[in-house]
Amino acid sequence: MIGLIFGPPGSGKGTQAAHVEREFKLSHLSTGDILRAEVARGSDIGKEAERIMRAGDLVPDDLIIRIVQSILRDPNVSSDVLLDGFPRTLEQAKALDEMLAQEGHKVDFVIAFKVPEDVLIERLLHRAEVEGRPDDTREAIRERMHEYRNLTEMVLDHYRKGVKVHEIDGVGEIEEIFERIRKALLPAERGR
Ligand code: ADP
Fold first, then answer.
1. For residue range 89-100, what is the model confidence (pLDDT) as tens digits?
2. What is the span of the domain harbouring residue 162?
């Protein structure tokens, strides 16, 4: 089972993905977390990604596609995955579809969060104070929102043509939002 989780920055997708991982026994793969770990390790990939991420821009497609490909091909990684933060561009979506098709798989479901922009900005600025993520500055937040609207929304349109896209209202308590996701995913889960 392959699921994708989409949402603008600050929509809570990381938090909800962790819940979905537990409840539906999927392994949560967050490209943002993977890149942040590379930056922390000071690897070559980390060095390449650090400045780009700090500015709120997207790292090059070929770099992130290679990373995801090597994880999905790893026999130690479960074939039940929830991808968070990937694909973010049409190019990445096509690469993913091809990777999956080679194994006879496809994307089974898509979750997409909807949250008004003023709520997102408020949450991210609050997170900046609590966690100090280097891309939670006003400038970088603006850039990340812009990338989401310009590139990632097109990826959603791509999947709407063939897969059920569950639009989830991302405003409310964490448990309440997770309940919306759980209800939406139950039919897909039964078909597993
Ligand atoms: P958010 O959704 O809050 O912006 P993420 O943790 O998903 O945060 O991603 C943080 C940053 O990591 C992005 O702004 C981008 O620089 C980089 N990144 C993550 N995933 C991708 C991807 N699929 N393609 C390109 N860049 C990515």
1. 999 999 999 999
2. 2-190
